[in-house]
Amino acid sequence: MKNGEKMENKEYLQIVENIFENKSFNQLKNERHHHNSNRFNHSVDVSYKTYKICKKLNLDYKSATRAALLHDFFFDEEFTTKKEMMLKHPKLAVQNASKITTLNKKEINIIESHMYPISGKIPRYKESVIVDLVDDYVSVKEKLGGDFRNLKIAVNFLFILFINVLIK
Ligand SMILES: [Fe+2]
Ligand SMILES: [Fe+2]
Questions:
Q1: Residues 72-95: tens digit of each pLDDT
Q2: 58 pLDDT band (50/70/90 cuts)?
Q3: Which domains are assigned to the chain?
Q4: How far is the CA of 166 from the centre of ligand 2 (A)?
Q5: Kind and range of the H or E element at 33?
Q6: Ligand nearest to the backbone CA of 40
Q7: How far is the CA of 72 from the centre of ligand 2 (A)?
Q8: Cα 50 to Cα 125: distance, rounded to the nearest angstrom
């Protein structure tokens, strides 16, 4: 996905506008994420893909897009070890997000469950499952840098399979 595509999508920008403008959220640009990215770009990628998929599936794409953008709203300095960060960051992301916007029940579950089954709560909504999967996809893509052609084909296949099950 090209960067320009999401920045030109007026509806997407309208949904995320007040989060994009928040000073604290913008500091995620200084947080390294998965070696090849920063946490801001990672979050925008997860949220735009979520927006496209949830809209196509007639789901609550507004809540899903907002929660996807906020799913990793935390800073490395808030944890002492990597393990602690991995296990506890979904809960902290909910706390940090609640300081800048009002979250609904679904948005809270989406953020809290995005690391399932490694950690966090159980995804209770279709939107939660989608954000969990999109996050995994974007994360693997970032970890592998540009070298992910075969992986992309495999993940796309799994996605199509998942969406088919979902819409049956
Ligand atoms: Fe995360
Ligand atoms: Fe993430």
A1: 999 999 999 989 999 999 999 999
A2: very high
A3: 3-167 (1.10.3210.10)
A4: 22
A5: strand 32-33
A6: 2
A7: 5
A8: 14
